[in-house]
């Protein structure tokens, strides 16, 4: 790390659990973030600010005025701009030390596989089941850790599927693909603005911990948040031996 980085990340370095060696791990890490909306905004902001050296951000959508209520990485002048590009612009203003690559077209599972192969952690900030299933397939195949989050209305959830562990369940274990796309999207259903920040920052924390090898992750646990009553619940998850994705 250079002198600017040592100063920028000094509050991380002061933490004995991270120190110089841990911060250097982050600087040399690569995270794939799929979705630059409500969840992807805090994820990208905190990973960039915290010093994750390379971020690849995937989003084919453009910024809309309705997004600005919760997608805090975008600003009013960003309306009409591709979300990945808008995110990249904001992140470079926050931390020019990081490398931010953008993917502006809709990715296929094969495309995700190429992107995930180069990343140390995959963070699912999408808002549809098709993308979630595709990323799960890829992470199971490549044995990559997947940080999964979702939010709608006043409720959210977050967990980690760390496919480096033989005991970890995958997304399909939790939500089997029954062949029906029942998209619960904010565009049709609404979402409380701070909720996505709470879930997204939790995803960011889990991703950083995975990159650092720090503490215990949410592998095997699903956190459920009811923000209307401000209640967190934790549910234990187990791998499904009959799972068509990770049980084969």
What does the model show?
With 248 residues, the protein is an alpha/beta fold. The protein has an eight-stranded mixed beta sheet with strand order 3-2-1-4-5-6-7-8, with helices on both faces. The chain is globular and about 50 Å long. The chain has helices at residues 3-8, 10-13, 19-27, 40-50, 83-94, 109-117, 129-142, 171-174, 186-189, 193-212; strands spanning 30-34, 54-58, 99-103, 121-124, 145-152, 155-162, 221-226, 231-236. The protein has ten helices and eight strands. β7 and β8 form a beta hairpin.
Q: Supply the helix-strand structural class.
A: alpha/beta
Question: What is the name of the CATH class?
Answer: Alpha Beta
Could you say what the CATH architecture is?
A: 3-Layer(aba) Sandwich
Q: Superfamily at the CATH H level?
A: NAD(P)-binding Rossmann-like Domain
Total count of domains: 1
Strand content: 15-25%
Note the gap between the termini: 43 Å
Please give the radius of gyration in angstroms: 17 Å
Examine the coordinates and then state which fold CATH places here, giving the name of the CATH topology: Rossmann fold
Overall body shape: globular
- Mean pLDDT equals 94
Write the H/E string, N to C.
Answer: HHHEHEHEHEHEEHHHEE
Number of helices: 10
Share of residues in helices = 25-40%
- Please state how the strands of the largest beta sheet are arranged side by side: 3-2-1-4-5-6-7-8
Low-confidence stretches: none
Number of strands: 8
Largest sheet: 8 strands, mixed
Question: What's the SSE blueprint?
Answer:
Layout: H1 3-8, H2 10-13, H3 19-27, E1 30-34, H4 40-50, E2 54-58, H5 83-94, E3 99-103, H6 109-117, E4 121-124, H7 129-142, E5 145-152, E6 155-162, H8 171-174, H9 186-189, H10 193-212, E7 221-226, E8 231-236
Parallel strand pairs: 1-2, 1-4, 2-3, 4-5
Antiparallel strand pairs: 5-6, 6-7, 7-8
Helix pairs in contact: 4-5, 4-10, 6-7
């Amino acid at each position: 790390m250079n002198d600017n980085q040592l100063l920028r990340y000094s509050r991380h370095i002061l933490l004995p659990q991270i120190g110089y060696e841990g911060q250097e791990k982050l600087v040399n890490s690569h995270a794939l973030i799929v979705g630059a909306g409500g969840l992807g905004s805090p994820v990208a902001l905190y990973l960039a600010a915290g010093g994750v050296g390379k971020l690849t951000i995937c989003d084919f959508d453009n910024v809309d005025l309705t997004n600005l209520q919760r997608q805090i990485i975008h600003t009013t002048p960003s309306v009409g701009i591709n979300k990945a590009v808008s995110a990249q612009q904001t992140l470079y203003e926050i931390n020019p030390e990081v490398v931010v690559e953008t993917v502006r077209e809709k990715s296929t599972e094969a495309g995700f596989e190429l992107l995930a192969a180069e990343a140390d952690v995959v963070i699912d900030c999408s808002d549809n089941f098709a993308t979630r299933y595709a990323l799960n397939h890829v992470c199971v195949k490549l044995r990559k850790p997947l940080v999964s989050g979702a939010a709608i209305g006043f409720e959210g959830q977050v967990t980690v599927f760390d496919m480096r562990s033989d005991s970890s369940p995958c997304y399909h274990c939790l939500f089997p693909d029954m062949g029906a796309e029942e998209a619960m999207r904010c565009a049709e259903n609404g979402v409380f603005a701070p909720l996505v920040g709470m879930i997204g920052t939790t995803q960011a924390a889990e991703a950083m911990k995975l990159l650092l090898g720090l503490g215990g992750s949410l592998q095997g646990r699903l956190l459920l948040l009811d923000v209307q009553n401000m209640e967190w619940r934790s549910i234990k998850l187990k791998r499904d031996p009959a799972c068509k994705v990770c049980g084969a």
